[in-house]
Amino acid sequence: xRMAGPPARTxxxxxxxxQGGESRAxxxxxxxxxxxxxxxxxxxxxxFRRSLRHPVRGGRTGEDPETRARRxxxxxxxxxxxxxYKQYALGKNELRPLTRNGHIGNxxxxxxxxxxxxxxxxxxxxxLEQEFQEAKQWVEKSFDLNVNGEASLFEVNIRYIGGLLxxxxxxxxxxxxxxxxxxxxxxxxxxxTPTGIPRGVINxxxxxxxxxxxxxxxxxxxxxxxxxxxxxxxxxxEFLHLSELSGNPVLVCALSQVMNIRRVLSRxxxxxGLYPNFLSPVTGxxxxxxxxxxxxxxxxxxYLIKSWLMSDKRDxxxxxxxxDALEAIEKHLVKKSAGGLTYIAEWRGGILDHxxxxxxxxxxxxxxLGAQHGAEQRRQRHMELAAEITSTCHESYTRSxxxxxPEAFRFDAGSEATATRLSERYYILRPEVVESYMxxxxxxxxxxxxxxxxxxxxxxxxxxxxxxxxxxIRDVYTTTPTHDNMQQSFFLAETLKYLYLLFxxxxxxxxxxxxxxxxxxxxxxxxTDLKA
Length: 532
Ligand code: DMJ
Fold this sequence. Notes:
Blueprint (H helix, E strand, L loop, with lengths): L44 H7 L13 H25 L4 E3 L4 E3 L10 H12 L3 H14 L7 E3 H19 L2 H13 L14 E3 L17 H4 L2 E2 H4 L3 H11 L2 H19 L10 E2 L6 E3 L1 E2 L6 H13 L5 H17 L1 E3 L5 E3 L1 E3 L2 E3 L1 E3 L5 H8 L5 H23 L9 E3 L21 H13 L3 H17 E2 L2 E2 L18 H14 L11 E3 L5 E3 L8
Antiparallel strand pairs: 1-2, 3-4, 5-6, 6-7, 8-11, 9-10, 11-12, 13-14, 15-16, 17-18
The structure holds 1-deoxymannojirimycin.
1-deoxymannojirimycin binds next to helix 17.
Membrane topology: Single-pass type II membrane protein
Pfam families: Glyco_hydro_47
Organism: Irena cyanogastra
């Protein structure tokens, strides 16, 4: 075991803070917990590795040659995506494969290398050793955290913090742990709001000196701004691990601020048990009554069930919130089309919008994952629901000319699982449909999920592969689509990883050991207390 973490600080037991809502929320601008000087904190990495039930890259053999060949093909796609990013855009956030240059964008507040960080754990899992070393070297030599600019708290958390944490847990390499902790601290001013519900945008450059960093930005946003459910609800998994790995009271305190979000949500009245997507971080009340399991809502639900799984099923508060939310969704939003397709509608102030976004297609996998526990009748009902939704999302792919799915599809005016608006016909290499195939495969072993996944591989090769990488397309309903010139970082983090895992044995990143964050970065389940 090796020493890691700052000296002479002992973290209060962060794990107990996730069990059954025992913790007390810190006031939004509260002082840090008093420092204790008992024993130096260290995270026992070797012990953590011994606590895993399966080797991280699997140990089983004996698969059929076709499955192996398909997996190798997906590995080749990852190498191709990485090599082109490296050649034309290393250090930028994404590759623009048609113009062969890099894209920076404005989501990450001056941070660079989103594709490097998002790709790390996929390269590692696929045993692309040389490519992993190239990515690691970039992190060691060029990943600069002293940046200035407005960043999305959500995007930085799921991609950068998630990617760094996952790679640390997979490899034990200190550089990933220390970068994750350093970046994590920079996110803390986001919680300085009257309710403690974080704001969505944070300036990474302007850090104050007072704990957690002072109110160092303009409050002009407060009157107009609202926080988004899927953004402030998608912090728990990463902040739990930041706290676990650091022993730093500031990050331990941050975890209790994340826990406080549940308190605020439990107090506010929920229309018919549903969670609207916009909440004021100033008043703690809903700003609009728009409910969606797709964009703006999605990963809030995902993180409830995954928080429970990550706590080794001890975080009963999260489980209950998930169960109650899913019950309301089943009751009010789950519908069947005239043609017999099950879908999850959106809800706007009591009126249903019969539309599913591509983003909402992750819910097949989530519901299947949540169905693995609980009473038999309910399990069965939820597995059926998960399979039906996944099948509907598959329909949205098969009904297009490219065999890739649109950004949103509708069930009205005679349409069934197809986009009816020009603006919703694009596909940007998103993962949610193959994500559900992967979970449903692991949980049922029905071969149709591998079959469907292979259809996606072929469609990606045919329509999205260009000379210098992979690109999104502007219209899935034409066999000669134009490309959007963007290789999204989540294509390497998620789409290719989930496809690869679909053709792996179940012990590769086993669901008994790992929970995937919403960017597909694997974070370990807490089997044992590893603080020494
Ligand atoms: C990813 O960044 C994450 O999966 C997020 O939760 C939703 N959107 C993209 C992929 O579509």
